[in-house]
Structure formats: C-alpha cells, structure tokens
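Example record for the data management plan.
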Amino acid sequence: LGQALPVPFRDEIPWPGEADYIAARLEAHRVTTVSTQSLPLFVHEAKRTGAIKHTVPLRSATLSAGASLPASAETVEGLLAWLFPHPYLRDGSGADRPWLQEIPETSTAITWGSWAEINQATANELGLQIGDAITLSRGDVEITVPVIILKQVKPGVVAVPIGQGHESLGRWASGVGENPLRMVEIHGGTLSLQGFAVQATARPGEGTDLARTTFEQDQRGRHLARSIPLSQVENPDHWLETHQQHYDHRNLDSMYERHRYPQHDWGMAIDLDACVGCGACVVACHAENNVPFAGADGIRAGREMAWINIQRYVEEGSDEVNLLVSLCQHCHVAPCEPVCPVHAAYHTVEGLNGQVYNRCVGTRYCANNCTYKVRRFNYWDHTVPAPLELAYNPDVTVRERGVMEKCTLCIQRIREGKEEADRRGEDVGDGAIQPACAQTCPAKAFTFGDLLRERSAVRRLSESARGYALLGDLGTRPSITYLAKVTRGDSSDTEGSHH
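Corresponding structural encoding:
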C-alpha cells in the first residue's frame, strides 16, 4: 500500500536544518522498507512514484477442506453469499484510478459502486426489482448495496464484488461502494464466513442508485452482435441468407454523391470471436485521447464520455453471451454530417468522419441523427487537480464545455504514421498505424488499415464470410466490419445470434 510522504520535497530550504531533517526521515523510511538502494536512488524512486511503499504484515488464515475462492457462505435464510474480485479493480488496489471506475462492468454495465447480483427467482422470493437495496449483515457489520438481476446467477445466490468501500484511498476511491470483506472474520486462524443475514428493502437507500451505462441486454431481433455456428463457418451460405448479407452493403443506393478517396480509406475490422470484454480498449482510448470521466452522477444522468464501450447481449431463451464493441462507425454515408449547421462534422478525404472542435457550437443535431449513438457531448469543463494535467496526451486537443466529441480512429496516430512514411520516402505499411484500442487489445481483436489496399489485412477481413456491417441495411456504409462470433450452435438453427 502506498503511504504519502510525511514531508514534501522542496528545492528551497526556508529554515536551517530542514534538509538534514528530511534526509533523516527518508533514511528512516529506507531502513524500514528494507531497501537495498542507496539513499539518493531511494529518494529518486520516491519522487518518481509519488509514494514510499511499505510492506503490509500478513495475517495467516487456515481454510477448511471445503473452502473455495471466491469466498462464499450460507446465510441464515439459506441463501449463498458469494464474494468475488471486481473484474477491473480486483482487490481494490486500483480503485483510485477513475478510468477503471468508469469502465462499465461487462456483465452489469455498472460503474462507480458496488452491487449484489441475484437471479430473477431469488428476486421474486425477496420481492426485489433492479435497483432496490439489499442489506447484508453479520454481527454488527452490515453493507447496503443495490440489486442487479442476472439470469446467469444461480437461484439462491447473492454475489457481491470486492474492491470498493475504501475509507481512505485517494479522492476517487474513498467512500465509493461497499466493502463486503468487513463481514469476514478470522477466529483462531480460521477464515469464518458463516452467519450472513439478508434484509431486502423496497426502495434504494441513499447512495445506492445504480450508475449504469445501459439497461438493455436484448437485441430485440436486430442482430447487432451476431454469431455463426461452427458447422457453417466453412459453408456460410445459409447463415448469410438468414442475415441478409447476400448483398454488398457498400453498393446500396444513396441520395448522396459517393465520396472519392485519392490515397487512403481507413477502416477497421473487429473480431467478436476474439473479444473477451476485458475493457482494455476503453482505458486505452481514455488515455490516448484525453477522454474525461463523467463520475457516478454523470453516468446516472446518461452523460458518459467514453468514445468506445463494450455492450453485452443475452438473447431470450439462451445463456449464450454476445459482446459488441461499439464505437464511431465512420460511415461513408454518415447521417451526422449533413445536419451540422456549422460543418463541424464533416467527411475527410481519407474516409473518416471528422469533428472540428473549434467549429462546434453544441447544437447536438449530429448526436440526434447518429444511427449508432456513439457521439458524446461535453456538459462540463472537465478539470483535474494539478499536476495531473501533465498526463494529458499533447497530440490531442483537450475539449471544452459545449462541444461534441467522438472516436477519430486516433487520427493523430494516422498523421504521425503518414509523416514517418513520407520521411522515409515509402508508402504507409500495412499494420504500421495502430489506434490505441488495437495496440492495447490483448486478444488482438482489432485490425486497422487501408481499405483501398487490396492485400491489406483489414481489406481481407472486411470481405470475410463472417464479416457484417452494424445495421448495414440502413445504407450508412460503415468503415467498421464486424466478424461474427463462432459458436457451437446447431446448424439447423437459423437465428444465428443466440446459440
């Protein structure tokens, strides 16, 4: 755990003996931490990390033969309390990072808080609905969290994530959520998890309102996140006919004149079979493009700022989960462009939906007309305490209040890659330019490149039998191609999106 420095570092010595005092305190810390570094190196590392790290003493605990992790225990009502690590915050050591707090948890789309996951049958028994509060107690310790109903949770289970509920861990973690580990006790070296009590309330308690980015997990027949049975991968004709992909969506008629791209037509392919919903692309986009965080109240008001997000869909009658990576589709026939009265939303000569921040006057017509709802409006002047502004990417403009912003496929990286190729007197190589999401994805689900280059990887994937355009039948001609998830579904099933 990081401990704040007891005395600030100063270049000027305002009173005699302060330098010796600080040096003595730092030397004491160096000895306490059993550091093998010299004092100058120890001080340099402390300045670099902003903290002096001490080892926390470990407490031993003996688990029973039937114990398992995540921690679980029977409640007095016969319910099973299940404590599991938060998928992004894990044990909570990273809870003071607002980027991690802002990522919607993949299964629930919840940000900035704690919750309890239960099955619909359990909710019916307790008389609960989504957002209602539930109190878990053990002895004198209790926590109150909102309820989220998921059919993937077994009946009789109350699952609560750990990683939140810090009393003191920086400005963005303190007081956020609840810490269910406070109810866990150690008796005689044995981890005790027995005797939980559950009490349901009809209305949410103060501070338990869910901050969710979406409340919908049903595709409602729109085939947004698609899947294809393994038996049809080699012969996908039946699947293509079912999903109306026998035509090339790029050749649909339009009332607008087609754009001409003299040099490049940038596009991306996203393999939904590779995506695991880890959220690394979301954090990478935040860091690369200076995307602000909205906070819990902003999320509740529907004012999230993330340029890219991962949507989760579970079809009725199936437990198969399909993920969809949602970002600006960079449509060749973009509905957002013709409605902007000041031409802030425009089409570049390289196939991108551009956005001129200096020209935007905040009418939000483009967001209203966007088919995919991926544009974000700045309702506030987002500021960070000094010196955190030094972490901004200097290659990307920090937007002000009252402008619209969205994914640009990291246009700053595109320009840098083109300039580097010009300096070498070469063409931009296939794969030489990587947007932040593509560079960071551990599963390599993103492929970026030039659609005009016949042998490029993105061109090949865009023509794949698994490839489809998101709502391509509307004629927007997106530059993003999705590759359907491969499932073990029966080839006789023609729905294709819920196996």
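Summary line stored alongside the record: The chain has eleven helices and 23 strands.
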